[in-house]
């Protein structure tokens, strides 16, 4: 039996959905003031997964798959050490990793992370997006800088730092960064990560002219077209903000995509939806999430707070389901990264599946059932854990299946086999 572990769990989500029908908590429990208990904000587009660390004020993880392992020999690598912005105000530089956030959380329950920093007259808002408009492991960070002062900015800039892990060993050896076609290519043993600035920056910096060190020293960035092959290579961009008027805003973005086979042309073909400006990318993703929420049933009689929790948990359920093609399609992992249970357990997925059915999300429920039926039994370790779950599985099959659905006509012996392991 596994030891209890904090989870952003698909199973826990389903239990939360079920709790929507219960009565109010005891008075003693209600007296406890709300407070943060988890400092990581996880997000996913069903292909890749990312984590924003609120305490450390940076993106701290980006993986090319939601699940931990493709098979016993193939572990999903973390492609990022960190990524964060910096600002230059009146000739002084500061990385925002060194300044507390003013606000951090999900964007109105959507699977988008919003982070706000302030420094001097500048308000910097980041929206971190794993885009559902892209059928690939991709990551977009939209930066909006607002001049809240009364005069135009003098000697000001926005910086970004991208410390990726594309090389060998722990991802740091024998990396090479080159500027080509308006984007950085970072290549190594883990394939290619493309880092595209939108729009074009005033400087594209890379090792050996380390952008982290230059900003720390109060300098501007200098463009580098080729880092050469080196260990622990890093890159960054700079957009000049000098002259930004009082009350004015400037929006830019960094788009990251990963191709394990190093094929840039194939990767570029998957990213055209992200070629627009950052504001358009953000608007498209918000609209996509709102369309998803509109498909879900609304619990009758729920309060505004309960509906907010329901909406957020639906987002976690969506992000926990693998949508990439292949044998892993449809599975619901027990935990999004950084939780270590980003693997599929029959028991946990059973609870999550019942949550999907209760929410009326039949397409997602069918995909989860299909993952089970199409799995190779001799390669799957069944961990159900309670007889009631097996009954729930059978009920789920009956609920989702219909005569037009090939999943619904799956061999009933599969459900019996699962029940036999209880």
How are the SSEs ordered, and which strands pair?
Elements (H helix, E strand, L loop, with lengths): L9 H10 L7 H4 L9 E5 L4 E5 L4 E6 L5 E3 L2 E2 L4 E10 L2 E4 L7 E4 L6 E7 L2 E8 L8 E10 L9 E8 L11 E5 L2 E6 L2 E8 L4 E4 L4 H6 L18 E6 L8 E11 L4 H7 L7 H18 L8 H16 L26 H13 L3 H13 L12 H14 L12 H8 L2
Antiparallel strand pairs: 1-2, 2-3, 4-5, 6-7, 6-12, 8-9, 9-10, 10-11, 11-18, 12-17, 13-14, 14-15, 15-18, 16-17
Structure keywords:
27% strand, eight-stranded antiparallel β-sheet, disordered N terminus, alpha+beta, five-stranded antiparallel β-sheet, 18 strands, 422 residues, 26% helix, 10 helices
What does this structure look like?
- By secondary structure, this protein is of the alpha+beta class.
- It is 26% helix and 27% strand.
- It contains ten helices and 18 strands.
- It has an eight-stranded antiparallel sheet with strand order 8-9-10-11-18-15-14-13, covered by helices on one side. Strands 7-6-12-17-16 form a five-stranded antiparallel sheet. Strands 1-2-3 form a three-stranded antiparallel sheet, with no helix packed on it.
- A hairpin with a 2-residue loop joins strand 13 (176-180) and strand 14 (183-188).
- Mean pLDDT is 85; it is low at 1-25, 380-388 and 400-422.
Low-confidence stretches: 1-25, 380-388, 400-422
Helix content: 25-40%
Protein structure class: alpha+beta
How would you describe the shape? Answer: globular
Strand content: 25-35%
Main sheet: strand order? 8-9-10-11-18-15-14-13
- The SSE order reads HHEEEEEEEEEEEEEEEEHEEHHHHHHH
Report how far the terminal alpha carbons are from each other: 14 Å
